[in-house]
Amino acid sequence: MSEEAEEFDLKALEKRMQGALNVLKQEFSGMRTGRASASLLDPISVNAYGTRMPINQVATVSVPEPRMISVQVWDKSNVSAVEKAIRESDLGLNPVVDGTTLRLPIPEMNEERRRELAKVCAKYAEQARVAVRNVRRDGMEQLKKQEKEGIIGKDEHHALADDVQALTDKYIGEIDAALADKEKEIMQV
Question: Per-residue pLDDT tens for 3-45?
Fold first, then answer.
């Protein structure tokens, strides 16, 4: 490999693919399995003060009971926005408003609800796969450009392209494994 070819940074591509996997795992941690968890509300953002904000920046989220989440909204004017954001999320929760506190009872999960959650997980996994494929596409375009400019040769291009594809396959496999684990966890009664 020539010294100029090191401009192509496989580590940077891997870091971006790992980022997509990390986002997926964070979204999965918010998917409930019948137990209350403060991280359940992490993916929710609220329209507050003219912008979208994570729920934890406008309220305190706690778990006082195993099947209850409590959301203490700091500013009374944001209570309806927080309630609306929770209702519109894919989580299927119905907040009970009590002043500036929202109580979210976690219902028992039935078969239909488990299947819905599994579909939401599959949607998150597909978004992660698309993100990984986009990183691969960027890497391949960078390789083509470097070959066209004469920075790398045809053989080097093909070797690096194989490395990029192997990295893509690895991360797609990890995404599929994470999805399978989460679906198994959700469908477990």
Answer: 444 467 889 999 999 999 998 888 887 676 666 677 777 778 8
CATH 3.30.565.10 fits domain 35-105: no
- Phi, psi dihedral angles at 124 (to 5 degrees): -60, -40
The two tokens of residue 64 are 């006082």
* End-to-end CA separation in angstroms for the chain: 54
Sign for the pseudo-dihedral over CA of 83, 85, 90, 91: negative
Going by pLDDT thresholds of 50, 70 and 90, the confidence category of residue 130 is: very high
Which residues does residue 86 pair with via DSSP β-bridges, in sequence order?
A: none
Q: Is the whole-model pTM more than 0.85? A: no
* Fold that domain 4-27+110-187 belongs to in CATH: Topoisomerase I; Chain A, domain 4 (1.10.132)
Instruction: Name the segment(s) of the chain with CATH classification 3.30.1360.40.
Output: 35-105
Q: Which DSSP string corresponds to 145-162?
A: HHHHTTSS-HHHHHHHHH
